[in-house]
Structure formats: structure tokens, C-alpha cells
Amino acid sequence: MTDQRARLTSYVTDHPGVHFSGLQEALDLATGQTQYHLHRLVRDGDLDRMEFYGRTHYYPIDCPSWDRAAFALARRETVRDVLLVLLESGPSAPATVADEIDIARSTLEHHLDHLTTHDIVRKERDSRNRVTLVLVQPEETVRVLETVAPSVSDRFIDRFLRLVDSVFEV
Question: Model's pTM, two decimal places?
Fold first, then answer.
């Protein structure tokens, strides 16, 4: 394995779910060089890649399915904020979570669609059909959040989307 591939493999092992631009930024590699080495690592079975909602993420081969989704989603600032509120406050109503992180309910629902699809958050309904958001695996969620550090580009995109959301909020 070349030095660059060893660097990429090591970085992905330490930062599971990192996406292409995050790798490129962290390791200061040219686009073509990063593409070439990642292609070879995936082809040779040294790394795995998965697409989540428009972004390709890279993982160690032995990374479990739940972790893959959790790492990919937790790299988005708004999702991290939702998960942190649920960790700090426990089961909460969607309106409470949206108010706590200052986003529109529609934005929260967009992220909840992904979180519930991958069994990271569950929506529970009471006898009056009121929804409560509950973390499915709180201890594992803590582990994921401790591992994920957002890149500058991730934060920029998330903040831009929040700005657009606040402009068009009714």
C-alpha cells in the first residue's frame, strides 16, 4: 500500500463517515489524487463507500450499518444539534426541539425523516396522538457524536441552509 493510501485508510479509520471533501481538506490532497487512491482502496476492499442523501461517505470495511448512517448524518450540524438536544433533555416534543435549536418545524421534519429511516430516532405517540422524539440507542449516539467533528465546508453548508430556512419561514 502506498503512503497516500495508508494515510487515507488511517484517516477514514479514525473518522468513519468522512466524505470526499473532508478527506481532501484534512489531508491536503489534490482532487485527482484523492479520487484515484480512494477508487483503488474501495476496489481492493480496504475501504468501503456509501452514499447518504447526496454525499458519498467512506468507512472502514468492518463499520456496522447503523454506525454508517449515524456517522454520515451526524456530520450535518443541524442533525448534531437535534441529537444533542435529545441527549441533554431526553424524550422531547418536536416543537420543543425545533425551538431549542431555532429551526423551522419543516427543517426538523426533513432531518427526522432521515433519522427515523435509519433507526437513530424514534417517534412515539401517546394516547392523544402527540409525538415524542426518543433516541433509539443513546449510548451509541454519544459515541458517534464524540467521534464526529464537522469540517468547515459542512458547517458552511448547514449554516447556509439555516439562513435560507429562516428567510422563507412563515
Answer: 0.81
